[in-house]
Design brief:
single chain; about 230 residues; mainly alpha; 9 helices
């Protein structure tokens, strides 16, 4: 094992690195909305089947890249939620960044993106919302609390801050960007390319503020605004 550079002292780093291909592959293979009918055939043909399928997908994502890494970090790595970016960190810088970026960058991008054919065909993921506006608020709340919380915790929290200790800040940013960008394969081209930029920027923001919550606010806002603009279009 020495020939390949294995060091048992770095076992947690190896686990963190492997968590990306393992957990994200399981998510894509078993946790996607397309698998909902396989596990819950009784809901086939239900009026809100696609909404339930999306909730299934988000829940699978939350368990795989939110709950499992959080438990491992706490029990095996002895790392607190705050040490993984779960605190508020530099509130002043983070708040100013959000207040400037949200109206000047996120809002225009969301509006322009919502007019792109690929985005319009993809979002909102639950197409039943076009005929059930009464579900929009609950859908978006679940989107934020289940999906985006797990996303930012895993990529800009668990991966980023765990790997920073071993590889340094820039390398950690790039590693989590590779993982977060690749999971976008199959999404519209603009979103796939944008995921690379977002990965770098939000990763740098998380390290600068020592918190993933500011990127969470911006990322969740972008997703929700795109949905709303498409629905209103």
């Amino acid at each position: 094992m020495r020939r390949i550079g294995y060091d048992p002292k770095h076992i947690n780093t190896y686990v963190v690195l492997l968590s990306a291909p393992v957990l994200l592959s399981i998510y894509r293979a078993r946790g996607s909305a397309e698998n909902f009918g396989r596990w819950f055939p009784g809901f086939t043909g239900h009026p809100i089947e696609d909404l339930l399928a999306v909730l299934y997908q988000w829940s699978a994502f939350f368990i795989l890249v939110g709950l499992i890494p959080a438990v491992y970090a706490r029990i095996k790595m002895k790392t607190s939620f705050r040490d993984l970016g779960g605190g508020l960190g530099d509130r002043r810088f983070g708040s100013i960044f959000v207040l400037i970026t949200l109206p000047l960058v996120i809002l225009p991008i969301a509006y322009l993106s919502s007019a792109m054919p690929g985005i319009m065909a993809e979002y909102p993921m639950a197409r039943v919302l076009f005929s059930r506006p009464d579900m929009v608020v609950w859908y978006e709340l679940a989107y934020i609390l289940i999906y985006y919380t797990a996303w930012e915790f895993y990529f800009r929290g668990f991966l980023l801050f765990s790997l920073e200790r071993t590889f340094g800040g820039v390398n950690a940013i790039l590693i989590q960007t590779i993982s977060s960008a690749l999971i976008h394969i199959g999404k519209p081209e603009g979103e796939l390319i944008g995921a690379i930029v977002v990965g770098v920027v939000f990763g740098a923001l998380a390290l600068r503020t020592r918190s993933f919550w500011y990127g969470f606010i911006l990322h969740a806002s972008l997703g929700v605004l795109v949905d709303l603009f498409v629905l209103m279009g």
